[in-house]
Design brief:
Elements: E1 8-12, H1 18-24, E2 29-32, H2 37-47, E3 49-53, H3 56-59, H4 62-65, E4 71-73, H5 79-90, E5 110-112, H6 114-117, H7 123-128, E6 132-134, E7 141-143, H8 146-160
Parallel strand pairs: 1-2, 1-3, 3-4
Antiparallel strand pairs: 5-6, 6-7
Bound molecules: zinc ion (ZN).
Length: 161
Amino acid sequence: MGLINAPKFIVDHNVGKLAKWLRIMGYDTRFFNGTDDADLVATALAEGRVILTRDTQIMKRGVITSGRLKAILIQSDEPEQQMRQVIDRLNLDCQIRPFALCLECNQPLQERSKQQVEDLVPPYVFQTQSQYMECPACHRIYWRGTHWQAMTKRLKQFMEG
Ligand SMILES: [Zn+2]
C-alpha cells in the first residue's frame, strides 16, 4: 500500500512530531533518535530519504550543499507550521491515507478480518467498525474511529490555514 514515486523521509528527533503526520498521509518516514548526525546522513543516503531537521549544522554538510542529498531546514516550532513548510516545499498532495502505515513504527499495515480482531478491540468498536488493519511489527490494530477523524480534521485545518 506504499505510495509509488513518493518521497521518503527521515525525521530528526528535533522535529519528531512530523513523523506521525507524514505517516498518516502515507509517506514512508523513519524517525531518527540517534545522536550522531553522521548516522542520520548515512541512513538518508543509503535509503534515499529526504532529511527534515532543525539542525543548521546538518545543512552545512557537503552532501547536502552539493545537492546530492535533499534536506529541509524546518523553520517553525509548531508542528502545523512545520507540516505546511514540508507540504509547500515538496508539493505534497494533501490526501490522508490512514490505513497505509503504522503511525508508531512505519510498517505497512496488513488487512485483518472482523473475526481476527474480535478479541483485540473494544466491543463497541467491534460492533460499529468493519475494516481493520494490523501492524506486523507492534501488532496495534487500526480502525476508522474518532482518533482518525480528529487527526484528519486537524490536518485539513492546517493545510487550509
Ligand atoms: Zn507498529
